[in-house]
């Protein structure tokens, strides 16, 4: 218990630190939020506090609470690519259903689907960008880095 390896019968040496020398108790170490939680709430993937967004979909340079550098993550157009497919499938399916079941005039489609597409795209963009940033943080993915 002096911080030196203990010698026990053939077992690999283990370092033991007495509780009085521990700097942070294990219960005080914060549990990082899940990637989904980061995406929905916009909290920091490291500390779970403060918003990672400066504006609607623009990241802050650093987390104000823990100092995590957000510029090291490259979310890029990944969120938009996913949303094009997801929102496009939803809107196309609903438009086809409406056309085949009610056959409304063309302007009804314009009045329904353009605003819905914009609302879904902008509403889900923040969640998707937060989710992708959290996944990059969790898996230590960085641009131009190989394992």
Strand content: under 5%
Order of helices and strands: HHH
Number of strands: 0
User: How many domains comprise the coordinates?
Assistant: 1
Mean pLDDT: 85
Coarse shape:
elongated
By oligomeric state, this entry counts as single chain
Note the main sheet: none
Q: What class, by secondary structure content? A: mainly alpha
Characteristic key phrases:
about 150 residues, about 45% helix, mainly alpha
General description of the model:
The chain has 147 residues and is mostly helical. It has one domain (25-138). It is built from three helices and no strands. The protein has helices at residues 35-41, 78-102, 106-138. Helix 1 (35-41) packs across helix 3 (106-138) and helix 2 (78-102) packs antiparallel against helix 3 (106-138). The longest helix is centred in the last third of the chain and has 33 residues, at 106-138. The protein is elongated and about 75 Å long. The model has no long low-confidence stretch (mean pLDDT 85).
What is the element layout, followed by pairings?
Layout: H1 35-41, H2 78-102, H3 106-138
Helix pairs in contact: 1-3, 2-3
Task: Put the structure in a nutshell.
The protein has 147 residues and is mainly alpha-helical.
């Amino acid at each position: 218990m002096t911080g030196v390896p203990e010698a026990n019968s053939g077992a690999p040496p283990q370092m033991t630190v007495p509780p009085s020398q521990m700097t942070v108790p294990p219960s005080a170490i914060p549990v990082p939020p899940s990637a989904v939680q980061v995406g929905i709430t916009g909290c920091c993937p490291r500390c779970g506090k403060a918003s990672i967004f400066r504006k609607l979909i623009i990241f802050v340079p650093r987390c104000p609470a823990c100092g995590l550098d957000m510029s090291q993550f490259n979310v890029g157009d990944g969120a938009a690519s996913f949303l094009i497919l997801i929102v496009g499938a939803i809107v196309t399916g609903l438009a086809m259903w409406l056309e085949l079941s009610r056959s409304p005039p063309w302007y009804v489609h314009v009045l329904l689907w353009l605003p819905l597409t914009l609302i879904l795209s902008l509403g889900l963009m923040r969640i998707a960008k937060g989710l992708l940033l959290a996944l990059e943080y969790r898996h230590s993915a960085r641009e131009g880095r190989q394992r």
